[in-house]
Amino acid sequence: MADVQKENGYTEIANKYLEKLSGACLSGAEYQVMLAVIRKTWGWKKKEDRLSYGQIAEITNLHRQTAIKVVKSLVAKRLLLVAKRLPVNVIELQKDYDKWLVAKRLPVAKRLPPSSRTTTNTSSQTTTHKRKKETYTKEMRFFDEFWKEYPRKRSKGQAQKAWIKLKVDEQLLAEILSGLKRAKTLDFNKREPEHIPYPATWLNASGWNDEYGGKISGGYQAKEFF
């Protein structure tokens, strides 16, 4: 069993220092080195200590080159103070955390309780469904206007699918009805009823954009469906 009784030795650390260290944005390796330096200084009730990179690597189980980089990083961030006294460096902890050059950890976003998240999701889904329903109803109302005017009422389901693909708004509806009126006057009235294109065929072919001269528009075959 590990022996971690306070009677066998302990390190005194000011609560404020520990809180600031816990809230600093440091890497895992940086925290390892900080703990090692705390152990070798304050753990022995010393302000500073002669610590080689090899010693730090041994305590932290880091590679020596990594230990060197981490110490330099902590010096740059002003958490450690290093005096070069041959043959090894003398390392000291910077107790004045106001001089540290580290970013603070962002506060954790408060999570909504499950019931609130469910309510929010349900509300969002309801709103989305309502908007889709309103859009669909509007499209179908426009379609009804078109269907009422189209002379050959065949395959209504296919015509509705073609209509939905067009995403008809007020402007496009006006263009379709205008083009349909022109087609009925200049083209459809010259055809036999069975030769008038199915509504879906006419919509998929953008029939409202057809131009008519002295001849019947040749845009459709005698037998067209959808």
Set down the secondary structure blueprint:
Layout: H1 15-23, H2 28-40, E1 48-50, H3 53-60, H4 64-76, E2 80-85, E3 88-93, H5 114-149, H6 156-166, H7 170-186, H8 199-204
Antiparallel strand pairs: 1-3, 2-3
Helix pairs in contact: 2-3, 2-4, 3-4, 5-6, 5-7
Describe this structure in words.
- With 226 residues, the protein is mainly alpha-helical.
- The chain folds into two domains: 11-99, Winged helix-like DNA-binding domain superfamily/Winged helix DNA-binding domain (Arc Repressor Mutant, subunit A, Orthogonal Bundle), CATH 1.10.10.10; 133-209.
- Helix content is 50%, strand content 7%.
- It is built from eight helices and three strands, in the order ααβααββαααα.
- It has helices at 15-23, 28-40, 53-60, 64-76, 114-149, 156-166, 170-186, 199-204, and strands at 48-50, 80-85, 88-93.
- Strands 1-3-2 form a three-stranded antiparallel beta sheet, covered by helices on one side.
- Strand 2 (80-85) and strand 3 (88-93) form a beta hairpin.
- Helix 2 crosses helix 3 (53-60), helix 5 packs across helix 6 (156-166) and helix 5 (114-149) packs parallel to helix 7.
- The chain is rod-shaped.
- The termini are far apart.
- Residues 215-226 have low confidence and may be disordered.
Features:
mainly alpha; Arc Repressor Mutant, subunit A; 8 helices; rod-shaped; 2 domains; 226 residues; 3-stranded antiparallel beta sheet; 50% helix; 3 strands; disordered C terminus
Short note summarizing the structure:
With 226 residues, the protein is mainly alpha-helical. Helix content is 50%, strand content 7%.
